[in-house]
Amino acid sequence: MSADNPIFQIEKQFGQSIWMDNLSRDLIQSGELKELISNRGVCGITSNPSIFEKAIVGNKTYDNDIEAGIRAGHSVEEIYESLVFEDIRNACDIFKPVYDETQGLDGYVSIEVPPTIAHDTDVTIQEARRYFQTLERQNVMIKIPGTDKGLPAVEQAISEGINVNITLLFSVDSYVETAWAYIRGLEKRAAAGEDISQIASVASFFLSRIDSKIDDAIDAKLKVGMDNLDVAAKLEAVKGKVAIANAKVAYQQYKEIFSGDRWQALAVKGAKVQRLLWASTSTKNPAYSDVMYIDELVGPDTVNTLPPQTIEACADHCDPANRLESNIAEAYQLLESLKDPDIDINLERVMAELLSEGIDKFVKPFESLMSSLDGKVKTLAAV
Q1: Which residues are catalytic?
Q2: What CATH architecture does domain 6-208+242-325+352-382 belong to?
Q3: Which of 24, 56, 156, 279 could form a disulfide bond with 204, CB atoms 3.0-4.6 angstroms apart?
């Protein structure tokens, strides 16, 4: 462990946890995951259908287990779950010492319910319950999308003592609804006389996708032949800045919600705050710093989840400082400036489109994975 590694500074000095957005059996079996915990300060992990598609498709590491599933007469869906659940359980076991050392603050491994059920509350509740019970790990988090249909499932899952990672949050309003769903779930559980001190939740707020979408809209406006230099300057001024401003405003809402009387009534019973988690943090535009979604959002009681290449970039050249609460007035002003007729970007519509696209970005790799797995099952069964 290197004390001058910026990731350790972020965690020890500024109270932000660094999790990794990646998981595969190779990572587990090679010992690399343990090394990332020791040498890179990774203290949690998230997965999604896209990650598992990359991990499983074309990887012979899983073939023996697939063949065992074929011999047992399991369906493709059952084989998929057996592969993924084994990886999740093993990752949970590797992170258990972190979970114990931090008294349940960190050491979590997130697994998403099938994205195809994102708009079905009852099925989401059933699957979250089944995943949590089947995995049998204290430090597993079930990922549920922060859709209108997903949030009632979040509330119910929390009330049943299930750790939940609410994913695909883009707008501040959606985040606020998510925080209250968590609080209602805890209140329901506490009213039933159940312990609420062992439940953990994070609200995953997506970043780079916001800037990518808004930057594309701005570039389209600039291409139209913008000969008004003042208007062009206004447009350029918001490029690459909306996601961070949006996250800073969300954090102000977090502070307000988790300091009020309603929350304090739960806190005295041992409830843990639902931390904001910064997701989609790999910078898509090469013109921007590859660690800007880390450096600009370091702050207490938060999580930043990074893909492997961003972890290495941060370990190399992050510049940790408590910036999450700097330039707050400017953040509000920047979001307000989108309404300027010269800029004319409807943030609410952008966020709604991003949520719809986000679900699709998980559904497509999930369906692709199931199709590829079906092909592999047929190939191996014929041998």
Answers
A1: 143
A2: Alpha-Beta Barrel (3.20)
A3: 279
